[in-house]
Recover the amino acids of this structure.
């Protein structure tokens, strides 16, 4: 392992950059949640796409580096699942929030 890296749950090698990114994401989500629903949706959208692209890049990199398929998928699965949840929360329709149609009609 490189200096500053550690193992997460004995499965994933995590660097200082990963720790900083995850920590800043958590702080941003907290601030957005305290500010407004709109800010929360913006944070979910931005970081949902960020983590989705991160997973895609590392999945492709794993294939190009001929890493075992199970290891490659297992390593990237948390980002795939988390980004999917974030994007679903950001883009889902909410029954208690007026849609675009109501705003246009007003």
């Amino acid at each position: 392992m490189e200096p500053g890296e550690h193992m997460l749950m004995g499965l994933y090698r995590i660097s200082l950059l990963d720790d900083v990114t995850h920590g800043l994401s958590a702080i941003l989500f907290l601030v957005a949640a305290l500010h407004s629903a709109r800010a929360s949706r913006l944070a979910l959208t931005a970081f949902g796409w960020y983590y989705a692209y991160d997973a895609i890049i590392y999945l492709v990199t794993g294939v190009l580096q001929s890493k075992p398929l199970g290891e490659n998928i297992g390593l990237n699965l948390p980002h795939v699942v988390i980004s999917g949840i974030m994007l679903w929360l950001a883009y889902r329709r909410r029954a208690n929030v007026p849609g675009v149609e109501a705003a246009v009609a007003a």
The longest helix spans residues 37-64. Residues 93 and 99 are 8 Å apart (CA to CA).
